[in-house]
Design a protein that fits this description.
383 residues, 16 helices, 41% helix, alpha/beta, seven-stranded parallel β-sheet
C-alpha cells in the first residue's frame, strides 16, 4: 500500500489570534484550532496565513509560533470581488502550499493554489434580521462573492449544505459535507473538589438547567428565560437557570433582563468560562436546553452529550444530524413547549437515552474523523 503523502496546508489564522478575536476564541476559532491540531497530529504541515490586525492606533501581525505570512486578506477579498480575474499574490505566499483552507469567510483568489472554504451556515442571508444591519447589503454581497471563488465548499452538516445551495447559490457538486468533532476534554470528568470550587465561585447548586452559547437573537434565549419563569415555583426553587456565553449583538434587552434577574440567584449569566470551568459546569448540570432557531451544526449539544447530560433542543435538521435520538425535541418557538419539557424532565427524569448511550453517540464525532474527511477534500482539489 502506497503511503499517503503529507500535505502543506495554508490555514486562516485571524480567528485564532487574541488581537483578532477579542481575546477569546469563538466557534469558528474552535473549529480552526482543532483542525490545525488534528492536521498536525496526522503528519501534515500547517502554515497559518493571517492579516495584520488593528489594535488601537497600530497594526500588529498575528502572534504565531510557526512559519506564517501576514497578508492584507480583507483588502485582497475586496479586490478579488472587484477585479474579474484571479489576483496573483506575491510568489512567496503560495510557494510550498498544496492547498489553502479558508475557515473565516475570507476566501482569497489564488493563482496557483486550490482553495477550500468552510461555510458554516447561511444565517446572514436567510435571516438578515438577526445580524448587524450596518452595511448589511454590501457585506452579504461580499460574502456571496467570496464563497463563490472557492474550488470546493465544505458544509458542516447536510442541513447547512441545503442552505448554501439556496442562499449562496453554490452548486451542489461543489459542496462536501464534513461534520465537526468533539474534543476529548468534554468526556473527561473533573475532580469533585474542583467542581465544588467552581460552583462556589459562581454560587451554583448542582442539577441546574444549562445553556451554553453566545447571547444573540437566533439563540432564542428570551424564550428560554420566559419558559423558566413560567415553571411552577417548586421547579424554580429546585433548579437554577445558568446561561454561559459572551454578549454578542442585538441582545441588549436580554442582557438587561438577565442583570435584573441576577440578584435573586435563580437565573445566572456567566459571560465567560474557560474550558476547565466549563467542564465542571457541564458535569454539575442536570439538563442542557438548546432552543436555538438556526444552526449549522450545534457543537454545544454534542459537548453536553459527551458530558453525559440529557438534552432538550429545538427540532432543527442540523441539530438532529448531530444528536440523533439522543435528545428530546421541542418546538422552541413556543415558550410553553419549552417549559413543559423542562418540567417533565424535572418530575420524571424522562430523557431520550441513557447517560452511557449519550456519551457513546458523541464519541462518534471526532476531530480525527473530521480531518480525515477534510484531507480527502484537499486531495480531491489538488488532483
Amino acid at each position: 500500500m502506497t503511503p499517503v503523502k503529507p500535505l502543506v496546508v495554508g490555514l486562516s489564522s485571524n480567528v485564532l489570534e487574541p488581537a483578532g478575536a477579542a481575546a477569546r476564541v469563538d466557534g469558528i476559532g474552535t473549529y480552526t484550532r482543532e483542525l490545525e491540531r488534528a492536521l498536525a497530529r496526522g503528519g501534515h504541515t500547517v502554515i497559518r496565513v493571517g492579516a495584520p490586525v488593528r489594535r488601537g492606533l497600530r497594526f500588529v501581525r498575528p502572534r504565531i509560533a510557526s512559519r506564517s505570512f501576514a497578508l492584507p486578506l480583507p483588502a485582497m477579498v475586496a479586490a478579488g470581488v472587484v477585479l474579474p480575474w484571479r489576483v496573483p499574490l506575491a510568489p512567496f505566499t503560495e510557494r510550498g502550499l498544496d492547498v489553502y483552507h479558508a475557515t473565516d469567510y475570507l476566501v482569497p483568489r489564488l493563482a496557483r493554489t486550490p482553495v477550500v472554504a468552510t461555510v458554516y451556515d447561511a444565517i446572514p442571508l436567510a435571516h438578515p434580521e438577526w445580524v448587524n444591519a450596518r452595511l448589511r447589503p454590501l457585506k452579504n454581497w461580499l460574502l456571496r462573492e467570496s464563497v463563490a471563488r472557492a474550488d470546493v465548499v465544505i458544509a458542516i452538516s447536510r442541513a447547512a449544505s441545503v442552505e448554501l445551495i439556496e442562499h449562496y447559490g453554490v452548486a451542489e457538486a461543489r459542496i462536501r459535507v464534513v461534520p465537526l468533532g468533539v474534543h476529548e476534554r468534554w468526556f473527561a470528568a473533573c475532580d469533585d473538589e474542583f467542581v465544588d470550587a467552581v460552583l462556589a465561585r459562581h454560587r451554583l447548586r448542582r442539577g441546574f438547567i444549562l445553556h451554553v452559547g453566545t447571547l444573540q437573537p437566533r439563540k432564542n434565549l428570551d424564550a428560554l428565560v420566559s419558559a423558566y419563569e413560567a415553571l411552577p415555583p417548586r421547579v424554580r426553587n429546585a433548579r437554577q437557570l445558568v446561561l454561559v456565553g459572551k454578549y454578542g449583538w442585538r441582545a441588549e434587552a436580554l442582557r438587561e433582563r438577565l442583570l435584573r434577574l441576577a440578584p435573586g440567584g435563580r437565573v445566572v449569566w456567566l459571560d465567560y468560562a474557560d474550558d476547565d470551568a466549563l467542564r465542571a459546569i457541564y458535569q454539575a448540570a442536570g439538563v442542557f436546553v438548546f432552543p436555538s432557531l438556526a444552526e449549522g451544526f450545534g457543537l454545544p449539544v454534542l459537548e453536553a452529550l459527551a458530558a453525559g447530560l440529557p438534552v432538550i433542543a429545538n427540532d432543527l435538521g442540523a441539530l438532529r444530524e448531530a444528536a440523533g435520538d439522543m435528545a428530546v425535541w421541542v418546538d422552541a418557538r413556543r415558550v410553553d413547549a419549552i417549559a413543559t419539557h423542562i418540567e417533565k424532565w424535572h418530575e420524571t427524569r424522562d430523557v431520550a437515552a441513557s447517560r452511557s448511550a449519550r456519551r457513546a453517540h458523541a464519541a462518534k464525532f471526532t476531530w480525527e474523523a473530521c480531518v480525515r474527511k477534510t484531507s480527502d477534500v484537499y486531495r480531491e482539489v489538488i488532483d
